[in-house]
Specification:
The chain is of the alpha/beta class. The chain has 9 helices and 10 strands. Strands 3-2-1-8-9-10 form a 6-stranded parallel β-sheet, with helices on both faces. Strands 5-4-7-6 form a 4-stranded antiparallel β-sheet. The chain binds zinc ion (ZN).
Length: 228
């Protein structure tokens, strides 16, 4: 029987690969799941695409500000335990754009898809706080359009982000996938960069497909992490 607590204790470097399931306990709806954030949309890929931002920036702004910002969400026990573990010996690579890993105290976080709370003007690069962005996406000084620093459909991941993620995976002798179906590429492809003898585990409500030899922990991640 696989013991995650023992595996964490034994590991020299632990890298967590995290997705929406880590933030649902903080009240942020699960990306892609039934009843989740995009359930009422025929095509979320269109709403969150670079084309939509470029061609219909007001519709983009309206959708993003109504559906994606949960500024009152607080880090939960998963964020807190991961922060403790990785600040001592590890890293987190997350698909989440909510910033909750850092707010939970984690120091070694790679935000693979960016951060909703970092906003900049596409014309001049000036950064503003999200409260201002929630009111308007227009930059009065130069007529530019503000946007959140997240990776939209149709946009590549920045090379320095990929490099940091690959480094975090390649250094690990224990890799733990948490709260993601792990089907979105290139995120899921990061596992190919793991050491051949690294221990691989996943924590998720439902079993997910993993390479041979990986350990699947099926259950509520808040319960699993509270026990670590
Ligand atoms: Zn500007």
């Amino acid at each position: 029987m696989f013991d995650l607590k023992q595996a964490v204790a034994n590991a020299h470097f632990v890298t967590f690969l995290t997705g929406a399931g880590v933030s649902t306990a903080s009240g942020i709806p699960d990306y892609r799941s039934k009843g989740g954030l995009y359930a009422d949309l025929a095509s979320p890929e269109e709403a969150l695409s670079i084309e939509n931002l470029q061609q219909h920036h007001l519709a983009f702004h309206d959708w993003v500000t109504k559906k994606m910002y949960y500024p009152d969400a607080k880090p939960n026990v998963i964020h807190e335990k991961m922060a403790q573990i990785t600040n001592a010996k590890g890293a987190i690579v997350t698909q989440n754009v909510d910033g909750l890993h850092q707010r939970g105290g984690a120091k070694h976080v790679v935000e693979f898809h960016g951060n909703l709370y970092r906003i900049y003007c596409q014309t001049c690069g000036q950064q503003i706080d999200y409260q201002t962005y929630l009111q308007s996406d227009g930059h009065a000084e130069d007529g530019g359009i503000f946007r959140p620093d997240i990776v939209l459909y149709g946009e590549p991941i920045k090379p320095d982000v990929i490099n940091a993620a690959v480094e975090a995976v390649a250094k690990a002798d224990l890799l733990v996938v948490v709260g993601t179906s792990f089907q979105v590429y290139p995120f899921a492809g990061l596992l190919q960069m793991a050491q051949s003898d690294a221990v691989l585990a996943a924590v998720n409500r439902e079993p997910i497909s993993l390479p041979a030899g990986a350990h699947m922990v099926v259950g509520d991640a808040t319960t699993v992490f509270a026990a670590l």
